[in-house]
Amino acid sequence: MDWASTLISQFEDELEDVYEINPPIGWRPLVESLLEYIKWQNKIHKTRVKIYSIEKRHGGLRIVVHHSPASSSSISGEIFGAIHLAETLSCKMCEQCGAPGNFEKLRSADSLILGTYCNEHLPQEKD
Ligand SMILES: [Zn+2]
User: In this structure, what are the phi and psi dihedrals at residue 57, rounded to the nearest 5 degrees?
Assistant: First the structure.
């Protein structure tokens, strides 16, 4: 079973309606920790916050949630805070190995590479 399938079976309720799970490999621990937190929040507050997508967007981790309108807004605030933290942390963690890294904007041939890399995984810049 691949990582995404394992995750879906582990967080059935949270990932019930998920559309895309495709974060870089180095950010998997961040995604797993966030899902554990959301699952715990859902359980103790009896909410039904669900994840719509988990992917790399504009060089950072991007997580989109949707939740039933009945759930209390204060709980959503806590979850959104955790999501914001995970997205912020992704810009300090190498997306390939999870080591401390820096957010980089690199030019490669005709395209611009945005992402977070440690020194070892920094893509080569080309003119
Ligand atoms: Zn790295």
Answer: -140, 130
